[in-house]
Structures are given as C-alpha cells and as structure tokens.
Amino acid sequence: MKKLLFSLCLLVLALCGFSGPAFGAYPDKPLSMVVTYPPGGATDFQARIVTTLASDEKFFGQPIVVINKPGAGGRVGWNWFAEKAPTDGYWLSTYNAPHFIAQSLVYKASRFSMESFEPVATWGADPAVLIVPKDSPFKTVKDLVDFAKANPGKVTVNGAGLYVGHHIAMLQLAKAAGIELTYVPEQGGTPALQSVMSGKVMAGFNNLADAFRNRENVNILAIADLQRHPYIEDVPTFIEEGIEVDNSSVNYRGIILPKGVDQETIDACEKALVAMFNTPKVKDLMAQSGSPLLVLNRQQTIELFAKVKKNLQELLKDIKQ
C-alpha cells in the first residue's frame, strides 16, 4: 500500500511538472526584438539602451538581439510581428504609439490592430518637435506660418512616415494655423532628419531625442507638447505661440509581445523589463542621449493605448485609406 501511494505521489508530481513551461526556466536562450525602424534612429538606439542589461541574472539572464524590420512608418515590421512572430515568448517587438494605432485606424488593409499585440511595458515618451535647416529663413513658427499662408502648399514638411506621430503633428499644425502644407513621408526618423539637414525639405517634424542629438545641424522652432521640455528649455510649445497643437503626437515607446503568449511569460517579461528600465544605468544613458524616460507597467500601458486610440479616433475620423 505504501509503495502504491508513493508511486501515485511521484506520478502527480511528474504530471504537474509537465503542465507547462516552468517559470524559472524562462528564458533559457537569447531573445529577439523586432525594431520597426532603421538602425540609428531614436527607436533603435533607445531600444538598445533600455535592453543593455538584459543578460544580467537580475533581469532576463539572456541577451536581447535587435532585428530591424523597417518600412512604411513601422507598418512592415508590425505586419510581420502580428502575422508571423512565434508566440513562445522569445520574440518581442518595440511599439510606437500613436504610430501603430493610427495606422490600424486609417488603413483598411492594415494587417494588425491594437488587439493583435500584448502590451508589456513602456520606456519612453518622446515629443515631436518642428525643425528646420540651420540656414533656414524660418527663425520662428510665425515665420513658417506666414510664408505658408502666402504660399499654400509650397512649404514641404517631412516625418518618419505616414500616420506616425510626426505626421499627426503636421496635420494638427496645418489645421490649427489654417495653412496648407505638403507632407513628405520618409523611411524613418533618421532619413527624415538627414533630409531636413540637407535642405531637401523646408522643415520637418522629428523626435525630440533625434533633434536634441543633432541640434548643431538643425534649429528647433517648437515642441508639440503641453509644456516646455528640460532638454530644450529655450524652445516654446506651439500653444505658447498661439497655435493649438497639443501632445497627441507624443511618441510613446515600449515593448509588446504577439497575441497568444501565455500569461506567465507576459508577467515574467513585464517584471524584468520594468526593473531594467528603472536602473540607474539605463536612466543615465537615456539622459545622456536626450531621450525622455517614462516607465509604465503592463496595466498602465494598456490604459495608455486606450487613451491614445480614443484621441486618434476623433483626430482622424475623416481619414480612411
């Protein structure tokens, strides 16, 4: 009888052991992280900063390998991630909001939506700024607006793609100032910045982080946020300039998993990421690069997505492609 009971106990323990992947075993190999923008841009270099400690046993104990899948303002990478990313917990992706949410609302053929992904954590909030070449005749926002009013459609303004935060900021500016601007979508923030610096376009909206790192080569005229930013305290908000452009275009960045990953793995990722984002090393590296840090957990990120979607549904209600 004792032998039978002992055998039954062993059987129960064995069955429990095979009920799913053990929490302590994840991860047991390197993780891959899709970045939906080109190397060198703000999303790419920030993603590398915030995951620099991934190999530390206090976090993942494994490295996170960046895989760039740029194109169409991030849509190429998010399409791939929604449709093809494995759901074993070893594939992460960066997210950019409002970018991916706006694209899912505007494009009828979009192959992803907000519900295609599992929000895990947020690491930053990067406002859009209006930039011009160093030798531009536009020294203030008023200069640009006055010229645009006298020359409808002649002012070219670029950004990292269609219906990314930069494009949204441009749409807000045109509507609030009553002007016609010509938007030039680029293949990411870095190409957009280079086009402004070279004078290929007359102006551009770009990330605060990218503009801050290249402030010797561009002039920053205004920031699309509710208050000035400590990194560029001398730059006014659009609202200060009398133009009602709010913070709807602020570029929130963080990490998502594909739909279908089990809750235990999501929780493990969230715990490691939030702890890693809050380390002094990550905070220092972000500050040194002019990258605004905002750490949110999974629930806060879910609430952020809902808020952004609600704002965009009103802002983009008459646009569908």
From TrEMBL:
Organism superkingdom: Bacteria
Q: Which InterPro entries match?
A: BUG, Bug_dom1
Q: Does the keyword Isomerase apply?
A: no
Q: Does the keyword Signal apply?
A: yes
Signal peptide extent: 1-24
Q: Any idea which UniProt keywords this protein has?
A: Signal
Protein family according to the UniProt entry: Belongs to the UPF0065 (bug) family.
Q: Which PANTHER family match?
A: BLR1237 PROTEIN, TRICARBOXYLATE-BINDING PROTEIN
Protein name (database record): Tripartite tricarboxylate transporter substrate binding protein
What lineage does UniProt assign to this protein's organism? Bacteria, Pseudomonadati, Thermodesulfobacteriota, Desulfovibrionia, Desulfovibrionales
